[in-house]
Structure formats: C-alpha cells, structure tokens
Amino acid sequence: MKLGEESSWAKKVVGDRYGPKKVVREDMLGTFVRNGLDQRQAESEILTTILAGSDTTATAIRATMLHIMTNHRVYNTLVQEIQKAENDMSISNPITSAESRKMPYVQAVIKEGLRIHPPITGLLTKIVNPGGETIKGRFVPGGTGIGHCGWGIQRHEVFGTDVDVFRPERWIEASDAQRNEMERTMELVFGTGRWGCLGKAIVMVELDKIFVELLRRFDFEPIYPGSPWKSSNFTLFMQKEMWVRVTKRVS
After folding, report:
1. What pLDDT is recorded for position 192?
2. Residue 24, SS3 per DSSP
3. Residue ranges of domains in the chain
4. 54-248, what's its fold?
5. What percent of the chain lies above the pLDDT cut of 70?
C-alpha cells in the first residue's frame, strides 16, 4: 500500500461488510459491524487503526525482541514463564490479552521494552490554554508549547539507578506505590489525556500476545549481535536489516 492510499483502502474493505452482499468475518472490523457502527464510523475506526500505530508498534516489537534475544537471563525467564503457563493450561492457543495480563514477567518485559526504547521521540507538545496555567508553582502564559523528551523521561530516577539497563525485574520488585508511579511515567510514551494515542488499547493487546506467541513456538537469536540492525530516527524510527535466526521449538 502506497502512502496516501489508506483512506481508499479503508473505504473498499469496509464497503464489503455493508450492503446487500455484505461479507461477514470474525475479526476486528466484524466486531465494529456487530456492535452497530455505521459504514462511515467503521471507515473512521479502520483508518485510525492503520495510521495510529502500525509503525510504532512494529518498532516496539523489534526493540523489545532485540533486548530479549541479547539478554539470556531475560530470555530464559520469559520462556520458563510461558512454558509453565502452557503446562498449567492457564493460557489459550492463541493466548488472550486477559490471560497475558496475569503473567507477571510477560507484562514486566512489555513495560520495560516500551521504557528502554520508546517508539516515538517527538516532544508531543501541548499548547497551554489561552488564560495560562500554573504548573508546579510557575505561571505559564497561554499559547506556550510544552513538550517532554520521551527518552529522557524514560531514564528518570523513578525507575531506579540502573535506568540504562533492560531489566524487567524492576517492575516486579517495586512497591505498589513505586510501580504505580513507574507505570504513569512509562505511559507518557502514548501521550496523555485527550491527546493520548488513539491506538493505545490496540497496541497493548498486540504486545500482550506477540511475545508469548513467538516464544512458545520458536527460538530466536540475532545473527549479527555486534550490529543487530540499522536504525535511524526521524521522530519515528526507520529500522532494517535486523537479521535473526529462527528455529522451531521442540516440545
């Protein structure tokens, strides 16, 4: 699909689900239809799904997988939790998001992946209301743009003293109060309030499932660990040549 063709594609796909010869499928678009969205609303939802996170989700998956593959302790701990869940028959095939969220180490890996390598580096600037706002005791005039450095925020001391290290255990070891503060800080990668990422819920469902589904079936290792990929940043990341050896896991 070429850039700019997304709208036409969304109209065509959605059009197949409405009208006298409508196509019925058990997928995300099918749930929109079943829950009463009209054709225009469905087009809007599908277009948002395409644009609001495909590249950033891919970056989150790549970066998290890279850190998993290059850290044997994390890799082994994650695989052991997945295999135990399979042996206990506490996860479906494929896993559901609800089941994944009961797996502490899987969730810790997801959060740590988003923290250590935020998929977007823009300042996510917000404009102060016309009347101005007082922020932490300081008056900021209306019309002022306020943004934050996503990478800097995710290295904040709230995460501990080893913020440059990929260590999912920090999310398990933290007290409830500290974990809550860490989660609020980590979620800034999605923006906040009404300006937050429209695709956040979908992204989290995808992340809940992808690592479990990959690692329950295959083993992964980077072919060139000294130079695992070519990554450039233009607010969003452009990443290529991430060569990985994938081996089917023996039960």
Report:
1. 82
2. coil
3. 6-51, 54-248
4. Cytochrome p450 (1.10.630)
5. 96
